[in-house]
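Usage

Read records sequentially. Each one opens with the input sequence:
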Amino acid sequence: MERKFLLIHNTLGRDSIFMSQTTIGTNLEKVQERIAQAALRAERNPQDIQLVAVSKTMPAETVRQAIEAGVTILGENYVQEARNKIEEIGHAARWDFIGHLQSNKAKYVVDLFDIIHSVDRLSLAREINKLAEKKGEIQKILVQVNISGEEAKSGIDPEGVSDLVREIVTLPNITVEGLMTMPPYFDNPEETRPYFIALRKLRDTLREEHGEDSALKELSMGMSADFEVAIEEGSTLVRVGTAIFGERIST
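and closes with the structure output:
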């Protein structure tokens, strides 16, 4: 993949490196085409898959260029970094929080983000509900599932998902939109398929329990290395960073 960077000297005398808008636009088109092809292979409508451009560590100027190139949803992992960008850029795109969330940071996330992908415990859901109630809003969330059982990953065990969702759906200022997961990394993306299948089946079981007309429709799964396999297995939200922005900028 071609990566073209521009060196810009700003008025404060500091240098910053960011990918050119042309390159971001080209990469975005390639990703969108791959999404469409994966959807068609699975006999799905490509419009049913939403692309979350993961912009963590990317400077605000690069994020602006991505929006101008056609990005409509941005995914951020870190509260303070995202807060600074959102204050500078505003809501020209939808902002999704996709990182691990501590309860003491929930206030900022509820204030700033449209959807939270990473709710994995009832105490956090209750805090989000309380904060959303104060704002007079309904906060959309996804329940994060540790489908692989890896100790280093956040998320509730699959066995606990049904009970957790049953508790969360009683909270009046939260809507559970679906599930999110991160499988192990494999050099061969085909090896992620069983994890995506498992999350889809878990979502389908929840829909049977709560009714087909419930909000439980979304599957946030698939990243730059494996999003095509995720789409083939039912993903509705793919979180793609490197394939759009290039390698992350170290801080």
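Summary fields computed downstream for this record:
- The chain has one domain: 5-245.
- Residues 21-41 form the longest helix (21 residues).
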